[in-house]
């Protein structure tokens, strides 16, 4: 009889704990459903330099994007906690605003041997992978930006923004007009998509190339859609 009472007490306690955790889980789900922007904010790093999140399906690119307020080279050698590291962080330079409304936005990151950071961008060197994975997604607190990938290829280790004068219409026109030529020259993949420098916004991802320190690997994409995030 004593054993039966103990068993019943144990079962009762287990049942109470189960109901408690079910209720707690339900509250967590409700909280997330009621505040999608709060959930997104939790995903962002606490570092105030972080203002966006970049993701490419099929790769290891799934990272915050930062911009240092004074030093363009800071995130080449520091992580988002301010620690000196060899892998750094994904970042933009001060030449770009944080709104993704510039004609051209360039994201930089190291190509790590374990494919972290931008180390998996060279997956696009495989033609089938390039065909199957076509979109770069960038999230901010207020908006989602989806970009169609136009080209992926190695290129000389020049500063693209300054070399092509991408802050000017003529410079952007030259960059876009010679894009397929660069793909043909350096090897890579190209998708026949019309890009209008007057109307379209361009995104470039740039990283070091695994083959040579004298080259970079570059993805070029055009903005397809902007979705406003609405708190519900």
Automatic annotation (TrEMBL):
Gene3D superfamilies: Sortase (2.40.260.10). One of its GO terms (molecular function) is hydrolase activity. The keyword Hydrolase applies. It holds the Pfam family Sortase. Keywords: Hydrolase. The keyword Hydrolase applies. The active site is at residues 110, 208. This is Sortase B putative. It comes from Streptococcus suis.
